[in-house]
Amino acid sequence: MIRREDVYPIGRLTRTHGLKGEINFQFTDDVWDRVEADYLICDVDGILVPFFMEEYRFRSDTTAIVKFEDLDSADAVQFLVNSDVYMETKYQEELGEDEVSLNYFIGFKMIAGDDGQEIGTIVDVDDKTENWLFIVERRDGQEVMIPAHEEFISDINKEEKTMVMDLPLGLLDL
Prior knowledge:
- By secondary structure, this protein is mostly beta strands.
- It folds into two domains: 4-99, Elongation Factor Tu (Ef-tu), domain 3 (Beta Barrel), CATH 2.40.30.60; 106-173, SH3 type barrels (Roll).
- 7% of the residues lie in helices and 45% in strands.
- It has three helices and twelve strands, in the order ββαβββαβαββββββ.
- A six-stranded antiparallel beta barrel has the order 1-2-5-4-3-6.
- The protein is elongated and about 55 Å long.
- The chain starts with 6 loop residues before the first strand and ends in a 9-residue tail after the last strand.
- The mean pLDDT is 88.
């Protein structure tokens, strides 16, 4: 059984493509191609299910057309439309430190380096601007945006899923 704590989001299946069981895959992380993964993990009615890829081709730098094994018609893949797609965190560990995607850190607890207090949990990464941001949900439910800059990251513990950040004074008060 695939557990949510062992995966991180990499995209979404958006619509069927053609009549032979192909589906559009909007991805935010191309780790699945860089490590040559055999399968993608899809959220089907709240259950994480691996689907083995027969073939895929890129349409752009954020879109691919994927054909899964044993799903040979548009009707057969229709149930996957709008499914979130995940990748196992173990694949990030195969990559060099410079190749790790920021999406990998979704679900990590962010800790303040100066006092060791928990800032919150990373729930998303905003990559729409040149300066990427971690979206962090605090215990009170408020979200704060923290620059995802390597100068601020002082420690990462993959086993405990924590990230220690040395942030400029007053950043959390904005």
